[in-house]
Amino acid sequence: QHAILTSALSHIPTHGFSQTTLSLAAQEQGLPEISIPALLPRGAADLVLFRLQKERLALSRNIQPWFSSPSAPTSSPPSQPHHGRTDAPTLRNIILTRLAANRPIVTHLKQSLALISLVENLTPAVNELELLADEIVYLAGGKDLGPAWYASRMGIMGIYFSAEILQSNPNTEWRDVEGFVYRRVDEFKKVGSVLGSIGEWAYLQARGVVQLGRNTGMGI
Fold first, then answer.
1. Cα–Cα distance between 136 and 97 in angstroms, integer?
2. What would the pLDDT profile of 164-178 be if each residue is shown by its tens digit?
3. Which of 15, 145, 163, 194 has the most CB atoms lying inside 10 A of its own CB?
4. What is the pLDDT of residue 59?
5. Which of 196, 210, 199, 200 is nearest to 126 (CA)?
6. Is a pLDDT exceeding 90 seen at residue 36?
7. Are the beta carbons of 44 and 19 closer than 8 angstroms?
8. With 80 as the cut, is the pLDDT of residue 82 above it?
9. Beta carbons of 70 and 178 less than 8 angstroms apart
């Protein structure tokens, strides 16, 4: 399974999250196409989940020091993590680094979101999103496993997933994604000093994500 999925990653930019991609990967591993359903019971959704895990594990190595943005000049210096809290500039950079990993396959991003929105794939997809949020909070300096950690995780899940849905729109440019993340992180920082406000803000963000997904054709 791991060998097929690893081989399949290189075919995603051309063929997307499709049976063709899985068939090419199986062929490269010397396996018959008929073996794919047994090895990958979720089909292309297994490839989506595998890639999500791979990019999450690579995040700490790939963090970019700074991104250009309409609201943040490229001359601005990178921010460093501060233990015990999620520093806003660092949080932006981490989220944008993960979103930047989608750029080589951005034309197929909507397909991947549609696959993980199916009922049978939703639970592992949400679990992976939670793990990503945990990683982002940790890398941004959040070390305390208390109420603030879980409130931060909820907020970051909303920011990341809504940004990814925006990124999947073929009319969206990278600067639009950057600007969106900057605005959402600024909002997150403003309510971050009041724990109850984070929970309310995260709930409103989640409602917005669902509506955005429906507007872009996802089955949620």
1. 10
2. 999 999 999 999 999
3. 163
4. 93
5. 210
6. yes
7. yes
8. no
9. yes
Residue 16 tokens, joined: 């997307």
Q: Residue 69: phi, psi to the nearest 5?
A: -160, 150
Give the closest residue to 199 by CA, choosing from 138, 142, 148, 139: 148
Place of tokens 């109850």: 196
Dihedrals phi, psi of 72, to nearest 5 degrees = -145, 100
For the record, the structure tokens of 12 come out as 């995603």
| pLDDT for 174 | 95
Rounded Cα distance between 128 and 216, Å, is: 22
Q: How far apart are CA 163 and CA 184, in angstroms?
A: 9
Q: Which residues fall within 8 angstroms of residue 126, CB to CB, at 6 or more apart?
A: none
CA nearest 209: which of 155, 130, 131, 134?
A: 155
The answer to whether 188 and 159 are in contact (CB under 8 A) is yes
**CB contact burial 187-205 (16+ within 10 A = b; e otherwise):** ebbebbeeeeebbebbeeb
CA 139 to chain centre: 15
Domain map (residue ranges) of the chain: 1-41, 43-63+89-219
The three-class DSSP label of residue 69 is strand
Whether residue 10 is predicted with pLDDT greater than 80 in this model: the reply is yes
One-letter amino acid at 193 equals S
Q: 69: which strand partners?
A: 72
pLDDT at 132: 95
